Amino acid sequence: EVQLVQSGAEVKKPGESLKISCKGSGYSFTSYWIGWVRQMPGKGLEWMGIIYPGDSDTRYSPSFQGQVTISADKSISTAYLQWSSLKASDTAMYYCARRSQLWLLGAFDIWGQGTMVTVSS
Amino acid sequence: QSALTQPASVSGSPGQSITISCTGTSSDVGGYNYVSWYQQHPGKAPKLMIYDVSNRPSGVSNRFSGSKSGNTASLTISGLQAEDEADYYCSSYTSSSTLEVFGGGTKLTVL
């Protein structure tokens, strides 16, 4: 079964760092782009960025460039989203998702279950 | 403000058909055939319903169909069922530096 399994919910304080993960299985992890999508409480989906695990080629939405870092470790089929200094406004559900085809553009056909990040003092 | 414009809500009775629009520009929806539609039930991850404007992934009911005219893409659901009640999001490739944008989402209510 093709699936993406994300790490569990996190509760952090402003200023703390965080790295959440997304582990792929059931397919060639290095062949498909993996994207990250934010959903703030009660709001819509926002495209954050995307990485190609095969060579770590990464693209960011300008809204998130410099605010987060997307990375991948192909040896363990895992993509990451990290923050160096969290803000309360980072409170949201974060989804990873796999491109449906073997190129940068297109749809996300497989989604992780989401990781809820809560930032509060 | 989302780059793609969707109606906030639509509703229909069981068995009816509804259409959700997704309006962009020639830099996104109108210029490329990389429009996708996602269904999201409360507390769940989004699910791909339509890709590349009008293609259905394996396992998605043929009651769901997609189309595009100019800068507006549309998702049509025929034979509405209670289980179709959910939020629906469109997305598109964009030639801007953003690369991809989502619509603001549409809440579908089955009366």
TrEMBL record, chain B:
Principal location: membrane
Keyword Cell membrane appears in the UniProt entry: yes
Record's GO cellular component terms: extracellular region; immunoglobulin complex; plasma membrane
Record keywords, A-Z: Adaptive immunity, Cell membrane, Disulfide bond, Immunity, Immunoglobulin, Immunoglobulin domain, Membrane, Secreted
Gene Ontology BP term (one): adaptive immune response
A Pfam family reported for this protein in Swiss-Prot or TrEMBL: V-set
InterPro entries found in the cross-reference section: Ig-like_dom, Ig-like_dom_sf, Ig-like_fold, Ig_sub, Ig_V-set, IgV_Light_Chain
Residue span(s) of domain Ig-like: 1-100
Localization in the cell: Cell membrane; Secreted
Keyword hit for Lipoprotein: no
Assembly: Immunoglobulins are composed of two identical heavy chains and two identical light chains; disulfide-linked.
PANTHER family for this protein: IMMUNOGLOBULIN LIGHT CHAIN
Protein name (record): IGL c3501_light_IGLV2-14_IGLJ3
Organism: Homo sapiens
